[in-house]
Design goal:
One of its GO terms (molecular function) is oxidoreductase activity. This is AhpC/TSA family protein. By secondary structure, this protein is an alpha+beta fold. It has one domain: Glutaredoxin (3-Layer(aba) Sandwich), CATH 3.40.30.10. It is built from ten helices and nine strands. The strands form two sheets. It has a seven-stranded mixed beta sheet with strand order 2-1-5-4-3-8-9. A two-stranded antiparallel sheet has the order 6-7.
C-alpha cells in the first residue's frame, strides 16, 4: 500500500501551517481540538448496535437501502463532510485506490456518505472518477442516528461566512451540521460489526484497518455457515 492516509492528511495540515494566516489556522485548529475534547464516545455508533432501515440517495439518481447493501454480505459506509472539503478530497480518493479494490474482490459494497444534496455531491465522484459509490444522507438522518454530527463553532461560522455562503448553502442542507469522519461496517444481520469515529477531520481510519474489520466479519460468517 502507498503512503498512509494520515500522513497525507498531515501534509495538508503542514501546508496550511506554511501558507495560512495565524488567525485562520487558529480557527481551524481550535475547532478540531474542541471536537476532540468534547467528543462523547459513549454515544457514538458502536459495534453491536442494531441498524433500523435507512435509505441513501445515490448521486446518479435512485437510492440505496439497508436491505440492498447487506443482501449478499457486509457493507462499508464512510461518512465525510462535503464535496469541496479539502481533507475529504484526499481521503475519499485514497479509499477508492486503497480500499475499494480489496472490498470489491470480496463482494463488499463501499459507500461514501455525505449530507450534501446529490446534485452537488456528485462533483467529488466525477472530479476523481471514483469507482466507489457516493450517496447523500438526506437531512443527516443516518449520521444523526449514529450520533456523529457536529456543528460549526462561532469562530468557524464567521470564517466560513467571510469566504462566501455558509456551509448550509454549500451542502444544500441549510444547517451548520456535518458528520465527523466515520467508518461503519454493517453485517447481513443488520448490526454494526465495526465502527470508528474521528472527531478531528484530519485524522481518519486507515484502509487496512477497515479491510481487517471486513475480513473478521466474513470469517465469522463463514464459520456460521
Amino acid at each position: 500500500m502507498s503512503e498512509s492516509l494520515n500522513s497525507l492528511l498531515a501534509e495538508l495540515h503542514a501546508e496550511r501551517v506554511r501558507t495560512w494566516t495565524p488567525e485562520a489556522l487558529k480557527v481551524n485548529i481550535d475547532q478540531r481540538q474542541t471536537l476532540v475534547d468534547e467528543a462523547r464516545h459513549d454515544t457514538f455508533v458502536r459495534a453491536g448496535d442494531s441498524i433500523a432501515a435507512f435509505e441513501l440517495l445515490k448521486v446518479e439518481g435512485g437510492s440505496l437501502s439497508l436491505d440492498q447493501l447487506v443482501a449478499d454480505g457486509p457493507a462499508v459506509l464512510v461518512f465525510f463532510r462535503f464535496a469541496g472539503c479539502p481533507a475529504c478530497n484526499i481521503a475519499i480518493p485514497y479509499y477508492d485506490r486503497n480500499l475499494q479494490p480489496a472490498l470489491q474482490a470480496r463482494g463488499v459494497p463501499l459507500v461514501a456518505v455525505s449530507p450534501q444534496v446529490p446534485e452537488r455531491l456528485v462533483e467529488i465522484k466525477t472530479r476523481h472518477n471514483l469507482s466507489l459509490q457516493v450517496a447523500s444522507d438526506k437531512d443527516n438522518a443516518l449520521a444523526r442516528r449514529f450520533a456523529v454530527l457536529y456543528e460549526f463553532d462561532e469562530a468557524s461560522r464567521q470564517a466560513s461566512l467571510s469566504k462566501g455562503p455558509g456551509i448550509g448553502d454549500v451542502t444544500g442542507t441549510g444547517t451548520w451540521e456535518l458528520p465527523q469522519p466515520t467508518v461503519v461496517v454493517i453485517g447481513t444481520d443488520k448490526r454494526v460489526h465495526f465502527a470508528e469515529v474521528s472527531p478531528d477531520w484530519l485524522v481518519r481510519s486507515e484502509a487496512q484497518v477497515i479491510i481487517d474489520a471486513v475480513d473478521r466479519v466474513l470469517g465469522s460468517s463463514a464459520r456460521v455457515a
